[in-house]
């Protein structure tokens, strides 16, 4: 438990300290999230908040997770880097939906084909157990893409995406800790710590927005 608390604390501190610097840079470079019909805020707020989130999450995870005991995590971080840079570029230069979809497919491919992450069984749900290989592959791609874009689409309300992300990570982190998946628990709590720090700046009226936005 000490490792979990320490990891969450480190990610929180790094993100909390990083976001004000990111806000200053975004303000100086005039990088703003412009209000539209899907956004709650009525004035421009500094974007690039995801830089602080990702920095805290990645550094805390790398410091706490032993890579040689969990080799699959290199693919988790590689996929996360793809999504991070995709969102960062979308903040700086608006990307088309097709380009964002291609980037998301690349990240999903890393997890599925290199990380060997598959939804190969429904464990009795809807009467299905083991799934055919082709269907399992398609379902895994579909699930990853849907989760990515679900968080993208709920980013219109200040604090909503970060709050749901925090809740999700706390639930998964607790579950992984209870079944003794220590590395996965550390990964979840690392992201939770970063999101809590981000929420300080993202509650209504927000001072900063996510790096990945739906346009």
Mean pLDDT: 83
Strand percent estimate: under 5%
Count of helical regions: 7
Overall outline: globular
Q: Report the structural category.
A: mainly alpha
Q: Provide the number of structural domains.
A: 1
- Approximately how much helix is present in the residues? 55-70%
Q: Largest sheet, described in full?
A: 2 strands, antiparallel
Order of helices and strands: HEEHHHHHH
Gap from first CA to last CA = 40 Å
State the strand order across the main sheet. Answer: 1-2
- Roughly how many Å is the radius of gyration? 18 Å
Q: Count the strands?
A: 2
Question: Runs with pLDDT <50, length 5+?
Answer: 38-43, 206-215
Give an overview of the whole structure.
The protein has 215 residues and is mostly helical. It has one domain. The protein contains seven helices and two strands. The chain has helices spanning 2-28, 49-64, 73-92, 97-114, 133-153, 160-178, 182-202; strands at 32-33, 45-46. Helix 3 runs antiparallel to helix 4 (97-114). The protein starts with a helix and ends in a 13-residue tail after the last helix.
